[in-house]
Amino acid sequence: MAKHEKTKEPGIYRRGPGQYEVKIRRKGVAASRTFDSFAEAVQFKNETVSKIDGNTYVDQTRERETSLSDVIDLYLKQVTPTKRGAVQEANRLQAWKKEVIAAYPIISVEISDIVAWRDRRVSDGKAPSTIYNSLNLLSSVFKWARQHGYKVDNPCEGVSRPKPNEGRCVDLTDENEAKLLTACEKGPGWLVWFVKIAMFTAMRQGEIRALKWKDVHDTHIHIPRSKNGSARDVPLTLAASVCVQEMRKALPRRLDGWVFGDPDASPEDGGCTTTMVQNNYRAATRRAGLAGELTFHDLRHVGCTRLAPLHRDCFELAKTTGHKDPRMLMRYYNPSIVDRVAQIRARERALAMG
């Protein structure tokens, strides 16, 4: 080990070619850092001594010795398992761990690093919602770190998010609906019922996967815990009620009570995973000649649009669809101009009749 040589500045030692170590012991505070230049070492010493004398010095040794990857690991272990959608969140966090900044000390991650990451993702053509979700998740990691004593700023704060795309305008014609359902019938026996429930109720895929028979009634479907954490009841239209009754006859009853399978188990163990649903649904859209035109999430748009005329206002509709913010319904409610004109004409006739 190279011998430390004193310099002309007390408390600063030369460790070797181009390396200067600062050692400070003052008022019971010990601090040390190594720099590549003498000027940086002097600046650090003067600033630190000034902070110690003014009682504003903050020891950030732990923050310099802990990488962003280390903090993400702690978050993955202590926080992620408590959330719904833990698998998806874990995947996003693993993606962050592959980034160059994951190896940085957590104190060294700056806003410019986050902005550069965002700009790369935009140039790669990633969807604004994908970037938005990843940024918000990393921001949550930093907030959690601060709450647990890490003396760091949150570099995600103040970073503008990409402007979201306009909501998709989804119009499923009777002809395409018939093609889709016929194609679903050629897949696994559960698929056509899964798709029908989505179209009739506007329920989320995760909510349908988590259905238990005890929560499926002729008049409504009870969701014990939705995406936003609260329970809700989804009223069934007459057509949806008929669908539920037919589904009871068509699907075999499982001993575990799940309608489609345990959402947390693998397909091999009788589970019903997101991947299983997506793969079978995409295969059906290919058979129907609708590949790339109608995602599974689009069925929620279809359901919202069809349910809207049956509700008095957007607040009542939000109770059915589970939207906390009724404004989000504007992205899901996609009536055609023909339907809108028909609704207005019908209201005009009703008013004229008194």
Supply the number of structural domains. 3
Q: Percent range for helical residues?
A: 40-55%
Anisotropy-based shape: elongated
Distance between the termini: 97 Å
Domain Core-binding (CB): 66-146
GO molecular function, one term: DNA binding
Family: Belongs to the 'phage' integrase family.
Protein name: Shufflon-specific DNA recombinase
Features:
single chain, about 350 residues, alpha+beta, DNA polymerase, domain 1, hpI Integrase, Chain A, 3 domains, DNA-binding, DNA binding, Integrase_catalytic, DNA integration, Shufflon-specific DNA recombinase
Protein described:
Keywords: DNA integration, DNA recombination, DNA-binding. One of its GO terms (molecular function) is DNA binding. Pfam families: Phage_integrase. It comes from Acidomonas methanolica NBRC 104435. The protein has 354 residues and is an alpha+beta fold. It folds into 3 domains: 5-59; 65-147, DNA polymerase, domain 1 (Orthogonal Bundle); 174-352, Intergrase catalytic core (hpI Integrase, Chain A), CATH 1.10.443. It has 15 helices and 6 strands. Helix 7 packs antiparallel against helix 8 (191-201) and helix 8 (191-201) runs antiparallel to helix 10 (238-250). It starts with a strand and ends with a helix.
